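Need residues for this backbone.
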């Protein structure tokens, strides 16, 4: 079974990532390294490397591999960054980011998901991630500033507390939009004023919390 899963993971990188234009060699290496099946219930292991999101309970999903790779590539990580992840979720994106950044600070509102992700990452020997259970839309004020803030849930707009926790050269990556469809946005300040770049449509579970969706 392990060999089959490894082959499926290699196929995922080739067919779902490289052929769709993911080029960052560090991102591709991380996606080859992190075992996505470990973040899923055993009954879904056979589908771990399918091209799409999968349910993980609590009305949450593990993101499509391509979207994890795209967000990681858009973050332009070199290995020196201090990164804030808003929405630990399954912990899969967290594990990929841990391969790419110096340190990851990950916040999750759902206590069950927070505990589950922490156990899985600890079992994988990931040691450069710090976890918090709380409202990620407020960021992690005690640990500011961050080089990168990555939001892994849909936001109705940009939360100012997150922008304010960036370094001057920092960037925020988030799915922004209403209802069922969002746009992946990167916001940076490196030109002296806020600059927005767009990376296509996406679908994420809605963010709750103070600066999330209120319905």
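Answer:
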């Amino acid at each position: 079974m392990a060999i089959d899963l490894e082959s499926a993971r290699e196929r995922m990188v080739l067919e779902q990532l490289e052929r769709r234009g993911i080029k960052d060699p560090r991102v591709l290496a991380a996606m080859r390294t992190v075992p996505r099946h470990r973040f899923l219930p055993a009954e879904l292991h056979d589908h771990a490397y399918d091209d799409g999101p999968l349910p993980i309970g609590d009305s949450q999903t593990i993101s499509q591999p391509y979207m994890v790779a795209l967000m990681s590539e858009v973050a332009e990580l070199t290995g020196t960054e201090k990164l804030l992840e808003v929405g630990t979720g399954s912990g899969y994106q967290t594990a990929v980011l841990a391969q790419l950044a110096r340190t990851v600070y990950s916040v999750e509102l759902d206590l069950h998901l927070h505990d589950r992700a922490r156990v899985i990452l600890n079992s994988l020997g990931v040691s450069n991630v710090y976890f918090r259970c709380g409202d990620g839309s407020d960021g992690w004020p005690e640990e500011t500033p961050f080089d990168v803030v990555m939001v892994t849930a849909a936001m109705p707009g940009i939360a100012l507390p997150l922008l304010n926790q960036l370094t001057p050269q920092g960037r925020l990556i988030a799915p922004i939009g209403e209802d069922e469809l969002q746009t992946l946005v990167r916001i940076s300040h490196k030109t002296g004023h806020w600059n927005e770049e767009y990376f296509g449509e996406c679908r994420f579970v809605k963010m709750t919390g103070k600066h999330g969706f209120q319905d």
